[in-house]
Amino acid sequence: MTNSTEARFIPIQRSLYPVIVTLFVAVFLISNITATKGVALGPLITDGAFFLFPLAYVLGDVLAECYGFKASRRAIFTGFAVTLLAVASFYIAIALPAADFYENQEEFSLVLGLVPQIVLASLAGYLVGQLLNSYVLVALKRRTGERRLWARLLGSTVVGEFGDTLLFCLIAAPVIGITTWGDGLNYLIVGFAWKTALEVLLLPITYAVIGWIKRRENY
């Protein structure tokens, strides 16, 4: 019989899933802040999250390929909830009265006072894009089994990234300074092409990570 005064704890399962979910959520949260800056690289129009956000799709691919759609969906909804919490916290912190010695209230508000339209665009694009990415990858895996991982990774990314980029561009473009159809189309094409190209470049790393996780998790 167990002694009722004995300290007891829930054992932590030895899985990499929580670590990957943490990275996945962190990438999305950071990208939401950096994406508020419009960026011009010569004739190319993009945003400040262009170098980081594609990693969310790499991690999304890893989650879907290794753990399945339900586990991937759980991670996506976790990222969605954490971002909502962050946005609410930003607004509350901005609204709180500044101390007499604090001189950066305006700058604080400018950086963290995310425009509601940007938040809506980011959350809508993320939710639709990631769910499409995971669904397509798992659906393809049911057809191909363990073969043609490259096709699953690229096919799911093309569908997910396009849905994500299209929604974000349509909703957020006016807020980040894109006011013409030409600039909007430029932003859409550049964002979609860049994210897809980066997925291709990272394919060997994605392969290695997925293989390592499957061995580590006794797949």
UniProtKB/TrEMBL annotation:
Gene Ontology cellular component list: plasma membrane
Main location: membrane
Subcellular location: Cell membrane
GO molecular function annotations of the record: transmembrane transporter activity
Known function: Involved in the import of queuosine (Q) precursors, required for Q precursor salvage.
Transmembrane segment boundaries: 16-35, 41-63, 75-96, 149-176, 188-213
PANTHER family for the chain: QUEUOSINE PRECURSOR TRANSPORTER-RELATED
Membrane topology: Multi-pass membrane protein
Keywords: Cell membrane, Membrane, Transmembrane, Transmembrane helix, Transport
Pfam families: Vut_1 (PF02592)
Lineage: Bacteria, Bacillati, Actinomycetota, Actinomycetes, Mycobacteriales
Family per record: Belongs to the vitamin uptake transporter (VUT/ECF) (TC 2.A.88) family. Q precursor transporter subfamily.
InterPro entries (alphabetical): YhhQ
Record-given protein name: Probable queuosine precursor transporter
